[in-house]
Amino acid sequence: MKLKIIILVCCIQYLVTISYSQCYNLVWSDEFDGTTLDDSKWSSQIGGHGWGNNELQYYTGGANNIEVSNSTMKIIAREESINGSNYSSARIRSIGKGDWTYGKMEASIKLPEGQGIWPAFWMMPTESAYGTWPNSGEIDIMEFLGHQTSTIYGTCHYGNDYFDKSSSGNSHNINPNSFVDGNFHHFSIEWEPNQIRWYVDGIHFHTFNATDVGAYTFPFNKDFHFILNLAVGGNWPGNPDATTNFPVVMEIDYVRVFQKITDVGIVGMNRLEPNTQDVVYSVPQIPNTTYAWSLPLGASLTSGLNTNQITVNWGALGGNVEVYISNDCGTACLVYPVEISINQILNSSFENDFKNWSENTFNGASANWNIDINNPHTGLKAMCTEVTALSSNNWDVQISPNQLKTIPGEKYVLKFWAKADANNKEMSIAFIHPTNYTYYSGQSITLTNEWLEYTHIYKATNSTASLNIQFGHETGSFCIDDILFTSIDLFYNKPKVKLPISSSSQGIQLVPR
Prior knowledge:
Blueprint: H1 2-14, E1 25-30, E2 43-44, E3 57-59, E4 66-69, E5 72-82, E6 85-89, E7 91-93, E8 99-100, E9 103-110, E10 117-125, E11 138-144, E12 151-161, E13 164-173, E14 185-192, E15 195-200, E16 203-209, E17 224-232, E18 248-259, E19 271-272, E20 279-282, E21 290-294, E22 300-303, E23 309-313, E24 319-327, E25 330-340, E26 358-361, E27 366-372, E28 382-389, E29 397-400, E30 404-405, E31 411-420, E32 425-432, E33 439-447, E34 452-459, E35 464-470, E36 476-487, H2 488-491, E37 508-512
Parallel strand pairs: 3-6, 19-25
Antiparallel strand pairs: 1-18, 2-7, 4-5, 5-6, 5-18, 7-17, 8-17, 9-14, 9-18, 10-11, 10-17, 11-12, 12-13, 14-15, 15-16, 20-23, 21-24, 22-23, 24-25, 26-29, 27-28, 28-36, 29-35, 30-35, 31-34, 31-36, 32-33, 32-35, 34-37
């Protein structure tokens, strides 16, 4: 306790003496030195359906399309029939495993040639804090069209909605030379609080400032993650033709992230059930750097003193996890608020609008998402959607909260309030695997035009789950508010220490308001 108090005093003291050095620290990298893709850093996205650009490939996560050998990673596009597509390829992302706000992001890539070939190194928001694309932003570090061998593109996208969007970008041309010269080329951005700068092979070719967005919101102040993919066809490059030689290979030598000491962030769980044990918090391990942690009252440090990673046992109260870090690049005190609650769902009543929620429409379905301030169930706000066009699946209009943590075999309760613009309107919920989308369980629900509470019991089959709240059954208006997801034991206040939760359907109950 004495050491903790001393550290806390030092942390508060240095909040006013933080050094804003321009020195960058290597905080994350993948050098692809193994023989398989590092699943602690990357996840594969699987599927076809055009990916919003009428692309022709089906993305797999298999060795046929991803190869790690000789200290490089190859994404391979092949001409083959697979799941209704005529081409296969791969798309990997670092979401939940590598997410950053600000820094120098770079990759060394050998680019492929060919009509209809579209490799990219880009970033997307980890949470849609400002709403669906393009509201929450997109950063394209490098895009390349395989038939324009002397030109690369760097762009960022932003806006209010799909029909009211904008972008800022530029291209860099090296004609008569070529980017498909068999060499690796270096692509990077330097991303600061109010500016992003694009580089290719050390040449600065575009700058975007916060003031450039005009009346739009500047969304580039939240965590983003990497995406590396090799698309085939699509609206921009057009389709392959007889001159395109398959297989086509995009080869990556490395991906690296550098940050100033003041931009480094603490990684760990920020919303926990009471008495959760062995929770890990970390900052990047940087050479020649000292680390001093402090915890709030009621939390205890079990390992990691003076290292970049600690393990904490929590009690019934939350508070700030803090670390004071220092090296030759500067000093900083990082503060990470942690909330203790039985509810795993963040922003469960939409009081912070769509923060921690992802709103999606697929396959031609359309909906207008909005925050209702006129008739919420409780508080000041509720979420409503006006479904204007349907597709073939009820999940083609959906909203999802943050990923849920569960213990296989344990039961969890989902409770929420919902209504529609008329009686007997249908919606549904589904628990699925967060990356390969395997269906675990779900339930159709019939709504009325009054707020009613609905309860769903889920028996977990995996350690994580995604919850889809689905409105793609019929057109009209639907509203939802006050959502709770927790373990049965915590809900009924049974003294059982567990990590958070997911579920298997046991029925729906109605409780009038």
